[in-house]
Amino acid sequence: MYLGINKFSEEWMKIEAELDRKSEKTISEIVSKYDKARYAWNYIRNNNFIKGLWEMSDYIVVGKMQYNAHGDTHARVVAANGLKILNILLNKNVNVDIIKDGIGDVDDANLVVLVSALLHDIGNQVNRKDHNLHSCILAMPILDKLLPQIYRNDFKISQIRACILHAIYTHMEDLKSYTTEASIVKLADGTDITKGRSRL
Predict the structure, then answer these.
(1) Is there a contact between 96 and 25 (Cβ–Cβ < 8 Å)?
(2) Which one, of 15, 18, 16, 25, lies nearest residue 45 by Cα?
(3) How far apart are CA 170 and CA 44, in angstroms?
(4) Are the C-beta atoms of residues 125 and 56 closer than 8 Å to each other?
(5) How far apart are CA 127 and CA 76, in angstroms?
(6) Which of 90, 114, 123, 176 has its CA 20 to 30 A from that of 97?
(7) What whole-number distance in Å separates Cα of residue 148 and Cα of residue 154?
(8) With b meaning 16 or more CB within 10 Å and e meaning fewer, what string describes 16-44?
(9) Which CATH architecture is the domain 10-189 placed in?
(10) pTM, to two decimals
C-alpha cells in the first residue's frame, strides 16, 4: 500500500491484497526449508525502513508517473515467482551459478534470488530513469546490515552481496544478466501481469 491509495479502485485494492496473500504464502513455504533465506525473508518483511522504500517507489511511479505498480506487492510477486523458477530448475538438477561456481549452496541461491527480487525496484523512488542503479545504491546499506547477521565470513558476505547487486542492476531487459540467479530475477520481474495491475 502507498500514499495516494485513495486514487485507486476497490477492485484494484482487492487484487493487491490477494496477490500479497498468495505471494507471502509461496515465499514462506519455499524458504521454510532454507535457514539463511528464511532469516533474510523475515528480516526484510518486518523492516519498516524497507517498507518505506517500497512505499515511496510506488508513490513516484504510480502516484506521480501514472505507471504500473513497483512497490511492496510487486516485490513480493517477483520474489515468489523467482523462487518458484529457481526451485523448478533445482528440482530438474540444473546447477545454478552460485552452486556450480562454488560460491554457495542451495540456501544461498534462494537467498540471492529472494533478496534481489525484493529490492530490485526500490530505486524508483529516486527516478524511473536509471532506477536499477539507484536500487543498487539503496540496497547496499541494507545488505551491509543484513548479511553479517547470516554469514560470519567477510569474504562470503562480499560474494553474496555481489551476486545480489548484479541481479538487481541487470534486471532491466536491455542489460545482459551473467548469472542464472540474475536471469531468474529478470524473468520473474515480467510475471507481475495480473489484470488490473498494468498501467492505471
Answers:
(1) no
(2) 25
(3) 21
(4) yes
(5) 21
(6) 123
(7) 8
(8) beebeeebeebbeebbeebebbbbbbebb
(9) Orthogonal Bundle (1.10)
(10) 0.90
Q: Tell me the C-alpha distance between 14 and 35, whole Å.
A: 32
Spatial contact of 135 and 191, defined as CB atoms under 8 Å apart: no
The HSE-up count of residue 195 (CA atoms within 13 Å, CB side) is 1
Angle at the Cα of 166 from the Cα atoms of 164 and 167, rounded to 5 degrees:
65
In the block, residue with C-alpha cell 545454478: 96
CA distance 93 to 66: 42
Each residue's pLDDT expressed in tens, for the chain with a length of 200 residues = 445 544 456 777 788 888 889 999 999 999 999 999 999 999 999 999 999 999 998 888 877 876 677 778 999 999 999 999 999 999 999 989 999 999 999 999 999 999 999 999 999 889 888 899 999 999 999 999 999 999 999 999 999 999 999 999 999 888 999 999 999 999 999 887 664 444 33
Q: What is the CB neighbour count within 10 angstroms for residue 151? A: 19
Please report, as a single letter, which amino acid is at residue 139.
A
Cell of 55: 512505499
Maximum Cα–Cα distance for the chain, whole Å?
49
Q: Which three cell numbers stand for residue 54?
A: 517500497
